[in-house]
Amino acid sequence: MSASNFDIVDKQADFIIVNKSADINFHDEGDIGEGLFSQVKRSLGLEELAELFPVHRLDKMTSGLLIFARNKKAASDFQVLFSEHQIQKYYLALSDNKPTKKQGLIKGDMAKSRRGMWKLLRSNHNPAITQFFSYSVQPGIRAFMVKPHSGKTHQIRVALASIKAPIIGDPLYSKTLSDRGYLHAYALQFNYLGKSFNYCVAPDQGDLFNCEQFKHWLSNIESPQSLPWPSI
């Protein structure tokens, strides 16, 4: 990550791919300062009313890959891709707790809880669906490769907390204080106008993401797309 709060990974005629820093809000935060969206627009030399369209978002604590559409038609096309689950997203997370299961599916409706938190319910009327694999990286630290199949607020954070493995540094769902919340949007894969696009950017912020054990594990794991994700 550069000294700014994001890097532009790719710039296409209809969209750009941004690698977001951790601890930057997507929208402006009043007196605190500009959010990511405003910063990206300014970096591109866009005026206030110039076109740039967010098609999905990341939580403030989460780093990694985001798509911005560069015109209304592209924004509409990406919304269709997201609604039809044609954009594959893969995340990396770290926990200092052992999960109740090492891999599989986490599924359930989500409801607002307290203090801005969400909780996973046993019902499945409009469920959040999350698949994951977990790995021991070093004593007391487990890495998770996560593939969400829906786009609910706090989905991955709540899913991992529900299996007793909250994300290290998560200000809402974990009791472990850390230098950052250890969730990173690692890879994106989609087809757009007949062409396949694949992006994969490793995290570079945080002591645990930069430790040799994690880097060694990540360099030896299969690409996220090639992992045996079961059909759902």
- Main pleated sheet: 10 strands, mixed
What is the class in the CATH system?
A: Alpha Beta
H-E order: EEHEEHEEEEEEHEEH
Identify low-pLDDT runs. none
Short structural summary:
The chain has 232 residues and is α+β, with helices and mostly antiparallel strands. Helices cover 16% and strands 33% of the residues.
Topology of this structure?
Layout lengths: L5 E6 L3 E6 L15 H8 L9 E2 L8 E7 L2 H12 L4 E8 L7 E6 L1 E3 L5 E3 L7 E11 L2 E8 L6 H8 L20 E10 L2 E6 L11 H9 L12
Parallel strand pairs: 4-11
Antiparallel strand pairs: 1-2, 2-4, 3-4, 5-10, 5-11, 6-9, 7-8, 9-10, 11-12
What are the defining features of this structure?
two-stranded antiparallel sheet, alpha+beta, 232 residues, Pseudouridine synthase, globular, ten-stranded mixed beta sheet
Note down, in words, how this protein is organized.
There is one protein chain. This protein is of the alpha+beta class and 232 residues long. The chain has one domain (6-222): 2-Layer Sandwich (Pseudouridine synthase). The protein is built from 4 helices and 12 strands; from the N terminus they run ββαββαββββββαββα. It has helices spanning 36-43, 72-83, 155-162, 212-220; strands spanning 6-11, 15-20, 53-54, 63-69, 88-95, 103-108, 110-112, 118-120, 128-138, 141-148, 183-192, 195-200. β9 and β10 form a beta hairpin. The radius of gyration is 17 Å and the shape is globular.
